[in-house]
Amino acid sequence: MKKILSIGLVLCFVVPVIAFAQEKMTEEEAQAELASVMAELDQVNAEIAALEPEVAELRTSASKMEMMYSGLSEQAAELRETWKRCQWGRYTVLEGDWLSKIASMRKVYRDGSKWPMIHEANTDKITDPNLIYPGWVLLIPTLDQYTVGSGDCLWLIASYLSIYSDAKRWPEIYEANKDKIKDPDWIYPNQEFMIPHE
């Protein structure tokens, strides 16, 4: 019994000493870990400072590239507009023509009220829409949609100045409207067709 009590007393003194030593060791380890982290942080800060000139240079390059992209986007938009105008039909003014009469022609818009489209496309020539002269070649803006008229067929529609000015391009209309055209030889008045221009 005395032996057991002696062991118990020894343990009462030894365990707190061991626990204290362990706590102290953990604190020392934490201090060492903190010192290590601080050293790494200093190294990272030094690396960041060394990279700052390169980052500034990259930012300048990025800013220049953004400006170039903006300029190229504007040029691309202008080129798209120019290309679009290149696809437009051409009509040579005859004696006795006026804009509403031209717009109402079957091969143009079949609708006299569309004359402002011709005027807008030719403001470089037409200062007064009531004065146009024989021999002038007017641009005819193309339509994105077309309503089938009596007597129309796909090749005839494709030949119109407001569509493609080229009868051979009729398959483009067919391909874009297969949901409405079951047979390219059979189309009907008042059908609405999309006219692709890409």
Structure description:
This protein is mainly α and about 200 residues long. The protein folds into 2 domains: about 1-85; about 90-195, LysM domain (Membrane-bound Lytic Murein Transglycosylase D, Chain A), CATH 3.10.350. The chain has helices at about 1-85, 100-105, 115-120, 155-160, 170-175, and strands spanning about 90, 135-140, 145, 190-195. The chain has a two-stranded antiparallel ribbon. The chain has a two-stranded antiparallel ribbon with strand order 3-4. The radius of gyration is 42 Å and the shape is elongated. The N and C termini lie far apart (about 105 Å).
Quick rundown:
This protein is 57% helix and 7% strand. With 198 residues, it is mostly helical.
**Which structural category fits the helices and strands?**
mainly alpha
Contiguous helical run count? 5
* Number of DSSP E strands: 4
Tell me the domain tally.
2
Average pLDDT level: 85
> Largest sheet at a glance?
2 strands, antiparallel
CATH uppermost class of the largest domain: Alpha Beta
Query: Could you give the distance between the termini?
Result: 104 Å
* CA gyration radius, whole angstroms: 42 Å
Strand coverage percent: 5-15%
Outline: elongated
| N-to-C series of helices and strands | HEHHEEHHE
Q: What is the CATH fold-level name of the largest domain?
A: Membrane-bound Lytic Murein Transglycosylase D, Chain A
Biggest sheet strand order reads: 1-2
